[in-house]
Amino acid sequence: MTTIRQDDLIDSVADALQFISYYHPLDYIQAVHQAYLKEESQAAKDAMAQILINSRMSAMGHRPICQDTGIVTVFMKIGMDVRWEGSMSVDDMVNEGVRRAYLHPDNVLRASILADPAGARKNTKDNTPAVIHYEIVPGDKVEVDVAAKGGGSENKSKMVMLNPSDSIVDWVVKTLPTMGAGWCPPGMLGIGIGGTMEKAAVLAKESLMDEIDIHELRERGPQNRVEELRLEIMDAVNALGIGAQGLGGLTTVVDVKIKDYPTHAASLPVAMIPNCAATRHAHFVLDGSGAALQTPPDVDQWPDITWEVGDNVRRLNLDTVTREEVESLKPGETVLLSGKMLTGRDAAHKKMIDMLAKGEQLPVDLTNRFIYYVGPVDPVEGEVVGPAGPTTATRMDKFTRTMLEQTGLVGMIGKAERGPAAIEAIRDNKAVYLMAVGGAAYLVSKAITGAEVVAFPEMGMEAIYEFEVKDMPVTVAVDSSGESVHQTGPQIWKAKIEERAISVE
Questions:
Q1: What would the mean pLDDT of 182-196 be, rounded to a whole number?
Q2: pLDDT over 90 percentage in the chain
Q3: Euclidean distance between CA atoms 228 and 217, whole angstroms
Q4: Which residue segments constitute the domains of the chain, with CATH numbers given?
Q5: Does 133 participate in catalysis according to the annotation?
Q6: What is the model's pTM?
Q7: Which among 251, 303, 247 has a CA at the least distance from the CA of 438?
């Protein structure tokens, strides 16, 4: 019989969450680096360079890889010969560890969890509660997997009840393009097959805890149907040409993970959950000897990537920008932004739309301004602002036409693609949408030289800020004529990949 002290679990969870906020798993970084080296699409290569640079900076600075520090998911395997010493339930121990991690004064993590999700949606302020899965197993130890999953990738999860004779590969190939780029590829796909629908979803999430080993599998060859599926799905997905950040390229996923479970003869439940460019998970074992703390990796193992600003890069002064300059921006063009921009996410947009509907004056003047879809991490130790990467832009699509037509707004900055309604509104109003790289939040924050809350302070991280930036890198994703690189880029690279496959045959 092993005794596990409650403080040992609390300390181990807190340490793991702090650790994964700024250390990528090394296997993921190595996989992205290999993809970066072979990538031929310049836009995708630049995006991966920013992801790799951001990862190294976060590891050295001990600040979050991504401003979305995630919803915590915990998988626990508790030995049958374990007893607990303490007064708290295991749920409460885990959540106390989460609380301590997210409120750590040296590295404050963004609290994103809202209670009463179908009602008031009130922030719990400490990112609790976690989502916890338990398994009671033989033995006298406690094995724990801890992950922090960002909303952008979690929101792209897909589930389906296929017929037993249906092709899982075909479903993935059909479904993945509908997910857009808001899950911040390149990443991993976790796929759960079998059981019941809820079991398949848990299997998919749990599969994402495994190390990247697709290259070893390819070298030795598959030994069962699940391993065959992993290779088939990875090849089929990368052949879609979606590429890093959805800009078009050779690598969309760096691994495909699958877990399966026996299912009913009439059923084939399948769940697919992507992991983003801020892949974050850690593992530890409690054996009664004390807390299990993470061992810091050697940062010298990170690739030392530099991102050079090319001669064709445009510079845009947001303080003096004109409509003519906005209309001159071309799809796929790299732009360095300087000057002042406003920020705003879902809650701020909804409040502004409600105010406009009531004929009320907005608290900020948006005439000829750009708005950045971001909810930054709180600053520490003299920082102007914490990590401040973009959030998924499609969530603002339903507000876009009203914002452009009634406020004088000329530009938006976010992550991933825009939907048809937003693209039409951008085209009709001769505006522009610029894309910042998801998964490069710490890097982006270094371009922010000033930050001030100017409206809705009660919304916390969803308040409206005014940022002053210097050479913040973005890509023109939708120009004033409505051309979207998230449509043209993957089309171009899918065709190129198909041509190569035909020539090889």
A1: 97
A2: 93
A3: 9
A4: 2-286 (no CATH), 314-489 (3.20.130.10)
A5: no
A6: 0.93
A7: 247
